[in-house]
Design a protein that fits this description.
alpha/beta; nine-stranded mixed beta sheet
């Protein structure tokens, strides 16, 4: 098949590489000449400057790999051109009904990113918790600590969207992104209490810290931290159960299980992985693109819906509303309270 990749920044180049690895032809789109030239030089793909030229190239589907505040613009253009699409992770997103209506009118499907569902350790953790059965979980704590200048080491942080535009600043963007694996494993969130703000010094007007306390519909209590001022980056999760505990260290690609009865730790890994420490994270993105290709071909349903994506957006919006009110906010309360359409000014 022939795929289009809209946006040839870091994520767009990754999607080009993955789709090419899967044996498909790719046409790239970017308004920046330097990015078009780089993609052609790196991957040997044809690149265009206008969306109309991408459609004229006869693409079967596209990935929308632009900054999040440009997503909806391209969603609308893809629906109008009747081109199926995959979207990178969003910050805020329109309601699921918005997508259903446009899919019905255009006759094409669309899918939101589900990156963490393709990360092997989350699959292992999900299977472990399913074996324990309902009621076995006590609490979950998860922290993402990044350092914004490390995101794009080839350019200054105030030269790309995550460090320049407050609506899509890195700490805010990472809340729904990191929450995705928690939703997938633990289910939907019922209520949230959150605070956010700026704790470090930046050249631009951005927030760098989001701290959330979550109550899931199952009754599970959890915390989620998203910080982009941590000069020693990490991703750490602790999952406390009745008689065992799990520690997830995503820097080392390691999931460890502690058994109270035997006072022992065991390193867990998915079948086929000889050493988690040598795991290539690019395999996660490759698996995600393979699932997208299968969905376009009608061979397999993609594992995430726009309703799932909207829920992540709802939790973020509710957390920010909680900060303003200084109170817990029920997620259901704000489901229809906002459009969820971010646009680059």
């Amino acid at each position: 098949m022939r795929f289009g990749v809209i946006g040839l920044g870091s994520m767009g180049k990754r999607r080009v590489r993955d789709l090419r690895s899967l044996g498909h032809e790719v046409v790239g789109l970017d308004i920046r000449a330097d990015r078009r030239s780089a993609a052609t030089e790196m991957f040997g793909v044809r690149c265009v400057e206008r969306f109309e030229d991408l459609v004229s190239a006869g693409v079967d589907a596209v990935t929308v790999s632009t900054p999040p505040d440009q997503h909806v613009e391209y969603f609308e253009r893809c629906y109008s051109a009747r081109v199926p699409f995959f979207s990178e992770a969003n910050v805020l997103v329109p309601p699921a009904a918005w997508f259903r209506e446009r899919e019905a009118e255009s006759g094409v499907r669309s899918w939101p990113s589900a990156t963490w569902q393709f990360y092997p350790l989350f699959g292992v953790l999900r299977a472990e918790l399913e074996l324990l059965g309902p009621g076995a979980l006590n609490t979950v704590h998860y922290q993402y600590g990044g350092y914004l200048p490390f995101w794009h080491p080839w350019e200054e942080y105030d030269q790309f969207y995550a460090g320049t535009r407050k609506p899509v600043a890195a700490a805010r963007e990472m809340v729904p992104f990191e929450l995705e694996w928690m939703r997938w494993i633990f289910g939907p969130v019922r209520a949230v209490s959150g605070v956010f703000g700026r704790r470090s010094e930046w050249r631009t007007d951005i927030d760098d810290t989001y701290l959330l306390t979550l109550e899931f519909e199952s009754g599970l209590l959890a915390t989620l931290a998203s910080e982009i001022h941590q000069v020693a980056p990490f991703r750490i999760g602790r999952i406390a159960c009745r008689d065992r505990s799990f520690t997830l260290d995503m820097s080392a690609h390691e999931l460890r299980r502690y058994e109270l009865a035997t006072d022992t730790w065991k390193i867990l890994k998915s079948p086929g992985l000889r050493s988690l420490g040598s795991f290539d994270f690019e395999q996660t993105y490759l698996a995600e693109m393979r699932a997208f290709v299968q969905a376009v071909a009608g061979e397999k349903e993609f594992p995430k819906t726009w309703s799932d994506e909207r829920h992540l957006s709802d939790v973020l919006y509710a957390a920010e509303e909680s900060h303003r009110r200084r109170a817990w906010v029920d997620v259901a309360e704000i489901e229809n309270a906002y459009e969820g359409i971010l646009r680059f000014p």
